[in-house]
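Dear colleague,

Following up on yesterday's call, I've attached the two folding results inline so they're easy to grep. Please treat them as preliminary; we haven't cross-checked anything against experimental data yet. The first protein's sequence and structure tokens come first.
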Amino acid sequence: MDRLKNFGFLLKDVSRRYVLRFERHAAAMSLTLVQCRALAHLEKNEGISQARLAELTDVEPMAMVRILDRMEADGVIERRPDPDDRRARRLHLTAKAGPLLDEIWRLAALTRAETFAGIARAEREAFVGVLERLDTNLCALDAEPAHAGRPVARTASGKSRARRLPTKQQP
């Protein structure tokens, strides 16, 4: 059997199990995965808008509002007026977020260690390198229309073009 045939299913299953494992660890902190992701993105992008955070975390804007309402009530984030748009608010972490982020990153490291148990460091590095290249390939394809049923070939310059599949000769 061609092992690559089930690549997408395997990738999705591993991702789902990884997320579930992280969520089990995070449950002890009473945080959801979405809250953890929001805090992690805010740590790197402090001062962004709610709309931008929703984009980064792939969460619907209305759902993000509820998540942020809870985190604001818990004193983890604060909304500040946007100096350029009086209708908008910018998101900032409070001092209370620091220990939470430390714990989130600790749990992420624990989950990674559990997932990569028994796998050599060189194999881990190679695996992550391949995932990064796959991500790069897929990001590049995002800007292009899908070529239904036709494989995509790369030109020497790296641009993609749809390959024409051989057609059967008519008698």
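Below is the second protein, in the same order (sequence, then structure):
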Amino acid sequence: MLDEIKNEIDGASQEAELLREYADSLERAAVSDNSRYKLLVLDENLKMWVAIEASMKSPKNMLPQEIKDNLTKLSKYVEQVTISKGVNMTDNYYRSLAEINRQISQGLMESVNTNLAQQEAYYLAKCGLDLSEAGKSGDKQQMVEALDNNQRLWVLIKTLMSSKNSKMPQETKDNLIKLADYVSRNTIKLGQNLDNMDQKMLSCFVNINRQISEGLLGHR
């Protein structure tokens, strides 16, 4: 599931970047006298929106249904305008398509970041609970799996906090990156001493997850 979340975020980031790039291209096409260039830009923009519409139908898409429905409607609008007007559309249409791209690019990342925070909060709480239960049971295999899942989650959080698309305050991002490094470093120590588990460190992990989970939900 963590890999799916990362892939979804990466995909949304790429879509947002493409939307911004094509917005710039559409504005250049609006003032261009080169019909071939205009046709190329409109064609590439149309292909992108067709791809976006297709991605909205994917069962793995984590965007809220309302947003997926709106993006599908926008895609059909872009298709209709592009096909009916073609390269002879007025400058206002080019700029209108560019503005749609920019607004959706921004909105897409805001929505993804909001849903991401909710999912991160859930998995932080779940990993904390798994660590706590593994500590109580004394099952070594259960503990190894709990430690591994928790570390993978924190590696993902560090990756996302290092991304330019993260909207978190810089101080928050820096603190989460430090926590991720702390968890990674001490997970190795815990894993090497399963027979003599450091209960204080384990409790520290559980508390970190709980507090950050609550903080993420509060931030959103």
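For the second protein, one point worth flagging: The helical segments are 2-30, 35-56, 65-85, 91-137, 140-161, 170-191, 199-219.

Best wishes,
A.L.
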